[in-house]
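FORM 7B: Structural annotation worksheet

SECTION A. Query
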Amino acid sequence: MPAYIPSPPINSFHLGPLVIHFYALMYLVGIAAAVIITRRRYRAVGGDPDLVGDVALWSVPAGIIGGRIYFDITTPMDIPHVWYGPFAVWDGGLGIWGGVALAAVVGVWRLRRHGVNVALFMDAVAPALLVAGLLLLRQKRNASSGEKSSFLGRALKVAYWAGSIFLALSKVPRQRE
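SECTION B. Predicted structure
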């Protein structure tokens, strides 16, 4: 019996001329779950749940852009060798750390623009990000050692770094205008 959850034998299906990747579907499920959980948690502490949609509308694309920038910087040898290579997210290549960092910065910017308590919002969003991260985790082979990475280990890394970045950003003093 394997000590890891094996990947399925296929990773996509065709819908007419479109190729639908399971990982892309899991991104959508993870984003939807995070928005639903955050709306409920933020409403429970007296916040406006509609603000969650505004923050997500800005933070999700920022996370994709930040993830791609991080990937391009850290693994330039994996960028497709065409003029659009640095932008080709459809060929894979998003770095979680860049995605979390840029999404956090943009999310804090939106929250401050609305004049809400950033720390209160971050308390509402933190568990939702963990759930979304868990939905996106998959077993990856470590290129250097050939070992399978631990599901729990990857989940804890995502939770630790996402929490650290959001905590650090929520403590930045607000500038008076």
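SECTION C. Observations
DSSP finds five helices and two strands in the chain. The first strand starts at residue 12 and ends at 15.

SECTION D. Sign-off
Analyst initials: ____
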